[in-house]
């Protein structure tokens, strides 16, 4: 005959697993739907931002060409030299203009930036044929004449967007056409400004611009540019919709795809580009898988706990068990009920109370796990990112760092005079001072960069910039930090004055190992201290070689 204790163990173990499964399924399904919608809406929002920026940029450039044409009409002059100067000024102010030219009513180019095509008749080109009749903005196309004349270091086919419009004379007659070719490269810069801020928290994003005429990919991964893309999100986008969906792409993979339609900006009607932002579904919904694993783990722990409790129960508690089981069945049916509380027996009372807590803890588990992750990456005193956050930042940033054009400046910061504050005013004032220092450092930390507290009064600020501007940007930032630190602090009603010394080294210029870069920046900091403090020292390889010799 089976013992009661064995029956109770099996019963309670099955009951807890069933309850956890029911509640976990309900909560996870609701959370999954909400989370899926939030992620989809975020991709749609990114696509809309890109679409809006594209149309805004085209509106601005078209407006600049219109202003120049109006000025030419107001001046009512045929001075080619003066026209040439105006064209050169426009290109100098807006480098996205690859070529700007003025041609007479017969199509002969009279003046053009860099003298390109001057004296050439382009009457058969669309930019003239359309522009002579009114304002014309053409879609993206490969250059025919200009591709052979403009600089092209990459060797890739040059693509342009055309803007042209007629220029009127004194009598209101058309005296010529003002035309401009916008390099399509500007779209990649717009793409970078949209995607760059997202890389730290949204991985594997890809952005596409699709033409309205034939659904051709104008911007996207290199292997897809110029190819037609016939998927549902393109069709919906071209209807003017801004939304998202999960769909299979031509490569056979499933993506979460956000889309938006470019319907113009102000008085600019737009070219009807559709912007897509896609992310692999397994990456997009990875947080949902983690949530499900958490529910399973909690269910296993709960099963063990309540199986142990069941070992000590007696036959007299069978009725309360049936009551609890009935409540669980109601939960399974979708009703919002509370596990009944039984006070007659202390064991049953503990069981019912624990089950009630389990329901509540499962509801809070998703947010609690997220809070724990955030706390693990923060310095408890200052709230700045700590070394754990620094490692994650470096892993994600270096993975996407273009080492041909970009660099990371490691700025090692140490406070001057901090020990004196601790010795004279006490550690409590010192801790408050560190918090205020952290607030000032955050003021100069831009998106994409990071400021970390390494320990004590030492901090590390990493600045991401182009190699051409890295030294000047680092110098300007270092001087700004020193100025901020030199301003007095009021800490616990004490007037405190400190300074700071900074050492700077560049990755990967000075070393391909980030650990060595931090060490080099620390050595530069030491030189700042030796040189009188309150200053910045950059790593000088030539000077380092001399010191070693």
UniProtKB/TrEMBL annotation:
Q: Which UniProt keywords apply?
A: Cell membrane, Membrane, Transmembrane, Transmembrane helix
Main location per UniProt? membrane
Q: What top-level branch of life does the organism fall under?
A: Bacteria
Query: Sorted alphabetically, which Gene3D superfamilies does this protein's record hold?
Result: 3.30.70.270, 6.10.340.10, PAS domain (3.30.450.20)
Q: Where in or outside the cell is it found?
A: Cell membrane
Q: From the UniProt annotation, give the residues forming the signal peptide.
A: none
What PROSITE patterns does the entry give? GGDEF, HAMP
One Pfam family here: GGDEF
Do the record's keywords include Lipid metabolism? no
The answer to whether the entry has keyword Cell membrane is yes
Q: Which NCBIfam families does the entry mention?
A: GGDEF
What is the name listed in the Swiss-Prot or TrEMBL entry for this protein? Diguanylate cyclase
**What lineage is this protein's organism placed in?**
Bacteria, Bacillati, Bacillota, Bacilli, Bacillales
